Amino acid sequence: MANLKDIRKRISSVRSTQQITRAMKMVSAAKLRRAEDQVAASRPYSEKLQSLLTNLANRVEASSHPFLGEGSDAPVHVLLITSDRGLCGAYNTNLSKAAEAFMASEQGAGASLTICGRRGNDYFKNRSDRVLTAHVNVAGGVSLELAREVSAEATRLFTEGDAGSVYLVYSEFKSAMTQIVRTRQILPIDRGEVSSQQDGNAGSAEGDDEATDYLFEPGAEALLAGLLPRYLETTIYQAMLEGAASEHGARMTAMDSATRNAGEMMDALTLQMNKARQATITGELMEIIAGAEALNG
């Protein structure tokens, strides 16, 4: 059994760790509220853009824009969105493994990678030589400028024929306890997929837009040419916002679990310390009694 001094040191160490995890939980909870507000504020714009894009895409030929085509036979390109920081449970691991599993499938064979987040880059830097670009330790976190940069790179790879299609791997935020890993094709744009997303997100009122007879100025093709790049940027930006909220939710949950575990460990160590102290006292009493009996004997 460990001596009292060692047990007291362990209790002190665990208490310090608990204070850190409790503070990190509170910080993550505050950041989560702001991230949730950003996600909620961006969703109406994204849904309305999807609604308008659906109406336009269903009125033009697929050959009117490269984003609506079939793509080439080149390998796919994967955009992976993780976080720069750890201590958020299995959040980054689940995303990286989902991307790895997709790349190991027949559909993702030979895929190249663009990674947003240091944790994803750390995972793949010794596992794959297909990482084209990594955006790590980005100042200010999620930004529209970063989404535009990633979108421009994906657009270049697709339009030049270096990527036959582009897939996005990210975490969809549901709640602090629930984050769902999504693998979604974003290029070429599937008009049926856009339509189904719009119907599921925006409801029947938005779905009625498909039957509305609009007059477009300029023409539908010219308007679509301006909206499709914006739609791609918005999709990537929305995924980054969802990922940021998922990260803070996962970290808050992980730190809450770590705080509880530290409390349980301190209780167990305290019990062990009391048993050790009681054993020490009992031993000293036995020695005193034995010495007294020897003197009286």
Describe what this molecule looks like in 3D:
This protein is of the alpha/beta class and 297 residues long. The chain folds into two domains: 4-21 and 258-296; 34-254, ATP synthase, F1 complex, gamma subunit (Pyruvate Kinase, Chain: A, domain 1). 62% of the residues lie in helices and 11% in strands. It has helices at 4-57, 91-104, 118-124, 144-159, 191-202, 204-207, 220-296, and strands at residues 77-81, 112-116, 131-135, 166-173, 179-187. It has a five-stranded mixed β-sheet with strand order 3-2-1-4-5, sandwiched between helices. Helix 2 (91-104) links the parallel strand 1 and strand 2 (112-116). Helix 1 crosses helix 5 (191-202), helix 1 (4-57) packs antiparallel against helix 7 (220-296) and helix 2 (91-104) crosses helix 3. Residues 202-210 have low confidence and may be disordered.
| CATH architecture annotation of the largest domain | 3-Layer(aba) Sandwich
Looking at the structure, the CATH topology of the largest domain is: Pyruvate Kinase, Chain: A, domain 1
Unreliable spans: 202-210
Distance between the termini: 34 Å
Q: How many strand units?
A: 5
Query: What order do the helices and strands follow?
Result: HEHEHEHEEHHH
Question: Which structural class best describes the helix and strand composition?
Answer: alpha/beta
In short:
The protein is of the alpha/beta class and 297 residues long. The protein has 2 domains: 4-21 and 258-296; 34-254, ATP synthase, F1 complex, gamma subunit (Pyruvate Kinase, Chain: A, domain 1).
